[in-house]
Design a protein that fits this description.
Helix content is about 45%, strand content about 25%. It is an alpha+beta fold and about 400 residues long. Helix 6 packs antiparallel against helix 7 and helix 12 runs parallel beside helix 15.
Length: about 400
């Protein structure tokens, strides 16, 4: 009888221990339903504002959480359906640290330094992010950028003097000096190295995106690797699986590549600066014109540059009949914009975007053109080449 009792007791103990083990394993492997970001930043004063702002959206985003440094520390908590890219922004957008956030306990450490120059920008070194597997993967997949940064620095060595000469000649309209510098062996080598560099950038970027075409990482990398989209990026999007397209970042890419039509809406007057720093208002440029083509472009945009000869043809033929072009560059690098203007020699007004104008037109991909009538109403979008020619011929028959 005692033997039976001990057998029963032994069985109960085994079942109890098994139950405890199962509970422990369940607790250990259960998915975390929220995230905690703990920051420890040295070098910044207490009270410095810290904000958690969504990134990789191609839009200005509002913070999802805010805090203030205390003893160099801050904490954010929240929930996510899937990993997302964020910027931890310090001060009044004076500096930031990027992080892939997922539902886990994440720690960020870094040493911050406030510049003593005007603007008091904040830079960071020794940045370490732990606790996010998505962040680890993001760093691994984008490690090639370190190689690109080295390549960029290497081919710019010793070119400052010639670059300054080219800039000076362009500003003064000194074609003889420009031609002289451009003809030197050093400048030709620089241009060849620059072309090879951007070819390498394009190859590594497209390979990164194609590698992740079956999941959300693919469209995510499209959002992070391109500031703006052009028609050349559409095949990259089309290769994605349905799951990738339906993901959060997949929907963002689709929205940017296929923006909502603005036909029938009126444009607001805006003022922007030209290459000489002089401000022009759109209403003054377009006053008395029957039709205006507002053209958004950039120096680095291949399709935009290829379209310029077509714009020149349309301008030469229809400007005498009341047609005007107003080009707005979204370039962030003003020197690159100035260089492109010197190369393209466009005969109409060219202004530099302030981010606000392109956003008011909902520009998500370039080239982007909007044909506007004399009353300021948009009557056509993305008309280029033969389509623009046919439309102007129809509108300006007389």
């Amino acid at each position: 009888m005692k033997a039976v009792k001990y057998k029963i007791l032994g069985s109960c103990l085994c079942l109890f221990m098994a139950s405890v083990n199962v509970q422990a394993q369940t607790k250990k492997t259960a998915p975390v339903s929220s995230y905690t970001i703990e920051g420890n930043i040295t070098g910044l004063t207490d009270g410095t504002a810290v904000k958690l702002i969504p990134g990789a959206t191609h839009s200005s985003e509002l913070p999802v959480a805010e805090a203030a440094l205390k003893d160099g520390k801050f904490t954010f908590t929240g929930k996510l359906k899937e990993p997302r890219f964020f910027y931890v922004v310090f001060g009044k957008s004076k500096g930031n640290i990027s992080v892939m956030v997922e539902n886990s306990k994440i720690k960020i450490t870094a040493a911050g330094t406030v510049s003593d120059q005007e603007g008091e920008w904040i830079s960071f070194k020794d940045v370490v992010v732990t606790g996010s597997k998505s962040h680890d993967y993001y760093l691994k997949e984008t490690a090639f950028k370190e190689e690109l940064n080295k390549d960029y620095a290497d081919y710019h060595v010793g070119i400052n003097e010639l670059s300054n000469l080219i800039g000076k000649a362009r500003k003064e309209g000194n074609k003889k000096l420009m031609d002289s510098v451009s003809a030197t062996a050093q400048w030709k080598k620089f241009e060849a190295d620059e072309k090879a560099f951007f070819t390498k950038v394009e190859l590594l970027t497209t390979n990164l995106i194609a590698k992740h075409k079956t999941n959300w990482w693919g469209p995510f990398f499209m959002m992070t690797q391109f500031s703006y989209f052009t028609p050349e990026q559409k095949p990259l999007y089309e290769q994605f699986s349905d799951a990738a397209k339906k993901s959060y970042y997949g929907q963002l890419v689709d929205k940017d590549l296929n923006p909502k039509s603005l036909v029938g809406t009126s444009i607001a007057n805006f003022g922007l600066k030209d290459k000489d720093g002089k401000t022009f208002n759109a209403k003054d440029i377009t006053a008395g014109k029957k039709y205006i083509l507002v053209d958004f472009w950039a120096s680095w945009c291949g399709p935009c540059r290829k379209e310029i000869p077509n714009l020149k043809t349309a301008y030469a033929e229809y400007a005498p009949k009341g047609f005007e072009i107003l080009s707005v560059s979204i370039d962030k690098d003003e020197k690159a914009w100035q260089k492109a203007l010197g190369q393209e020699n466009m005969q109409w007004h060219n202004l530099l975007d302030d981010d606000k104008v392109s956003k008011s037109f909902n520009v998500k991909a370039i080239p982007a053109t909007y044909l506007v009538d004399g009353k300021g109403v948009i009557i056509g979008e993305n008309l280029r080449g033969a389509e623009l020619e046919a439309k102007l011929k129809e509108l300006l028959k007389s």
